[in-house]
Amino acid sequence: MLKIIRQALLILLFLTVLTGVAYPLAVTGLAQILFPSQANGSLIEHDGKALGSSLIGQPFADPKYFWSRPSATTPFANNSTSSTGSNLGPTNSALTDAVKQRIDALHAADPGNDAPTPVDLVTASGSGLDPEISPAAAQYQLARVARVRGRTQADVAKLVAEATEGRQFGILGEPRVNVLRLNLLLDGKL
């Protein structure tokens, strides 16, 4: 009986060291070597200060900025510790009310804009933390941002093009605009 208990404890110790120490250290070391930016949070920095992550959406409400996709996280928007979708279906009155409020906010910020509202500006994503919007959503906001900042639309459009990423590997997904990167370009911090 003592022999079995000793073997069980040795196996427990060995597996604890293997799966609790060696494996995490190996994976972390490989990630630091092969993907250092991603392993450290894909941070966007300016003057040695982290301004945010390119992988997590941040809220922007000032009309001089491009607005991100709405967030469904709780207890506040873009809460990276609470990634979740709203789980509201298309017939749910709470969703239709939220979409109407978001459309009203977009129209209040840019009353002259009569273009169709892109869906990604009024609906939350599955994670609630999308850092990107569609090029159509950026185009929808372009005139407002240019007007509020006193810049030409062509000037702002160049920054939108610079912040736009194409399809991954040329075939996967859709083109997208990283909102944090775009707003930092507008502020001259990138």
The tally of beta strands, per DSSP, is: 5
What is the end-to-end distance? Answer: 67 Å
Radius of gyration: 23 Å
Strand content: 5-15%
Order of helices and strands: HHEEHEHHEEH
Unreliable segments of 5+ consecutive residues: none
How would you write the strand order of the largest sheet?
Answer: 3-5-4
pLDDT averaged residue by residue: 89
**Structural domains: how many:** 2
Number of helices: 6
Largest sheet: 3 strands, antiparallel
Rough outline: elongated
Task: Give structural notes.
This protein is mainly α. It has two domains: 1-40; 42-186, no CATH class. Helix content is 46%, strand content 8%. The strands form two sheets. The chain has a three-stranded antiparallel beta sheet. The chain has a two-stranded antiparallel ribbon with strand order 1-2. α5 (153-163) crosses α6 (179-186). The protein is elongated. The termini are far apart. The mean pLDDT is 89.
Short account of what is shown:
This protein has 190 residues and is mainly alpha-helical. The protein is built from 6 helices and 5 strands; from the N terminus they run ααββαβααββα.
Secondary-structure topology with pairs:
Blueprint: H1 2-34, H2 36-39, E1 43-46, E2 49-53, H3 93-109, E3 132-133, H4 135-149, H5 153-163, E4 164-165, E5 176-178, H6 179-186
Antiparallel strand pairs: 1-2, 3-5, 4-5
Helix pairs in contact: 4-5, 5-6
Task: Give a quick set of tags describing it.
mainly alpha, single chain, 46% helix, two-stranded antiparallel sheet, 3-stranded antiparallel beta sheet, 190 residues, 2 domains
